[in-house]
User: Fold this.
Amino acid sequence: MIRVALVDDQELVRAGFRMMLDAQPDMTVVGEAGNGLAAVSLAADGAADVMVMDVRMPGLDGVEAARRICAAGQRPKVLMLTTFDLDEYAFAALKAGASGFLLKDVPPQELLFAIRAVHSGDSVVAPSTTRRLIDRFVPLLSDHGGAARLPSADLADLTEREREVLVQVAAGLSNAEIAVRLFVSEATVKTHVGRILAKLGLRDRVQAVVLAYESGLVRARGRDRPE
Assistant:
């Protein structure tokens, strides 16, 4: 059973999500919060596996709440929702440690899929969207300070094959696509990705993409897309 916490400053929105999620055989809503500070406290309770949280809220916003929750290493994985389709929000949310970013008007089945995906450890940000965000914002962050950088990691710890896999991940390829390109099984790719995340101290493949660009392993704006 996936235990979900809902965070939104609009009670009506939370009620709608609760009805939909509680109707699922594999989900249950275990808590609600109306602002970022309450979300941080709710996360500390450890009752939720996934926290579905709005970006814009009064007081402490969703991005800062996600940053505090993820930095504390608490249980819930954070799925950010927003009414506004702005790259700035998406990138800030991912940099804060969120495992996904969706618009509130996505079809119900897409939201349910996203919650299940985040719970299983996957990212719900489409690879093409991830690359677009990284291409646009990583050079700016590098030049002007921007958001906090990821934990320090040494790419030298990776094997040659793991570096190859990381480049493909940064290009936005799925495990299945990487398997075809590198002539290995999808299970082997999944194992490599797991080892990359463990060695570099990263939470998920979204952070791996960010690190690949910030470290210079892959250059921004498509100049180093694997052929």
Notes: The CA atoms of residues 103 and 199 lie 32 Å apart. Strands lie at 2-7, 27-33, 50-54, 77-82, 100-103. The longest helix spans residues 127-144.
